[in-house]
């Protein structure tokens, strides 16, 4: 049975150096013509949720803007900061090695589950050389569902359409760094390997219900073993 591995982006695979919050402020300015006075609240949330709250924080009705206009503003804002992202951010230690190791595993499809738009998720990984090994037709992205748990089912349906078979809570593994990622997996129908590379520590992630918890991605063998265990596989051999 094929296993679907869904990677979170920010603080799981890459550190964006604060450029992500800058890009939300930039999108707000593109939409409203105003300078944002407060910072976006981001961790483990989708772009529509983040932008709706940022607009409300400034007394602006999110309903004044279509989903397409918000998406376009977000894409434009990050694209203008691509160079700054490369300067300020970096791939997290072990990220590339973990992706490559899972690529070598038998019957594994790797994609992305992120609150970002598909375009922005791709940009964040492409800048640091992480995008090419992932199947972007099987992911779940910020505007695909009302909330993050709903993205899991979207990714599972896309993976089934691309690769055949069925993907559910037995053969889907979400890798993320926040309690919201853990919650998305539990509610959405996935096992969760949590990494304490963001704001939430190992104990917090374990208490939230993660299937496995790692301090980071630096130990490639431990990452592969955690994903295999979460998916009920003793090991993977190509």
Automatic annotation (TrEMBL):
A Pfam family of this chain: HAD
Protein name, as recorded: Haloacid dehalogenase-like hydrolase
MF terms (GO), sorted A to Z: hydrolase activity
UniProt keyword terms in alphabetical order: Hydrolase
Gene3D superfamilies attached to this UniProt entry: HAD superfamily/HAD-like, Putative phosphatase, domain 2
Signal peptide: none
């Amino acid at each position: 049975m094929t296993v679907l591995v869904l990677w979170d982006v920010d603080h799981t695979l890459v550190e964006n150096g604060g450029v992500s919050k800058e890009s939300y402020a930039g999108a707000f300015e593109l939409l409203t013509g105003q300078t944002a006075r407060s910072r976006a609240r981001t961790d483990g949330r989708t772009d529509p949720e983040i932008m709706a709250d940022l607009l409300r924080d400034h007394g602006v009705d999110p309903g004044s803007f279509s989903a397409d206009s918000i998406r376009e503003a977000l894409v434009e804002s990050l694209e203008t900061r691509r160079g700054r992202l490369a300067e300020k951010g970096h791939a997290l230690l072990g990220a590339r090695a973990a992706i490559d190791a899972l690529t070598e595993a038998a019957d594994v499809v790797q994609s992305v589950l992120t609150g970002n738009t598909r375009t922005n998720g791709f940009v964040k990984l492409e800048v640091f050389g992480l995008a090419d090994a992932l199947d972007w037709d099987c992911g779940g992205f910020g505007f695909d569902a009302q909330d993050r748990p709903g993205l899991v089912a979207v990714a599972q349906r896309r993976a089934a359409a691309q690769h055949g078979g069925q993907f559910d809570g037995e053969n889907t593994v979400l890798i993320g760094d926040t309690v919201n990622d853990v919650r998305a997996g539990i509610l959405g129908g996935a096992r969760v390997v949590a990494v304490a590379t963001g704001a939430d520590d190992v104990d917090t992630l374990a208490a939230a219900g993660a299937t496995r918890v790692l301090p980071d991605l630096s130990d490639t063998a431990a990452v592969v073993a955690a994903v295999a265990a979460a998916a009920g596989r003793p090991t993977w051999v190509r």
